[in-house]
Amino acid sequence: MMDWNRIQTQWQSRSDLQAPDTLADLATPERLWPIIRRRDRNETFVSVLGAFFFGGFAVFLLLIGKPVAALFGLWLTLVCVYIPLRLRRARQMIPVPDPGRPVTEFLRAERQALLGQRELLGAVWRWYWGPIAVGVIGFFVGIIGWHWISAAFVAIVVAGSVGIEYLNRMAVRHSIEPAIEAVERQITEMENDHAE
Question: Please, are residues 136 and 158 in contact by the beta-carbon 8 Å criterion?
């Protein structure tokens, strides 16, 4: 059984605003938050580059008389702007360790942040790869027209999208769900200890 009173005392006595090692290891298995932050930084960087790329191309395509491709270029620009905002909103749920905050309150906030990440990855088809896939297909077909090359491109985009969906489901199953379960066990154990 864990000594929650000791963890609470250690938690509240820290002056550097870092969670005690035992709590950090329990609440964020395998250092999940740094991985999520790194993922978000990488995807934000790529999204910013994508916004400039597709935005510039949308203007160029409009000027050379390809309005359908330009419209999809604008769509992709908006998607690339939305992605970092969506990631940021989920990332803002990650609680900051605060020695003045009760451990159980921190754990509940951490559970909410993990649930937010699960929802983010579970709905990735709706806000991430779905809009990108539609935009990229429309952009490509709008430039070169519809023939066998376009059909092959569509098949590649669909296959890539299915692969991304599979990887996200695996991330939820192997990283997010176990972390949620670990935090919920800690909360339950603390509540049971305090009830005694």
Answer: no
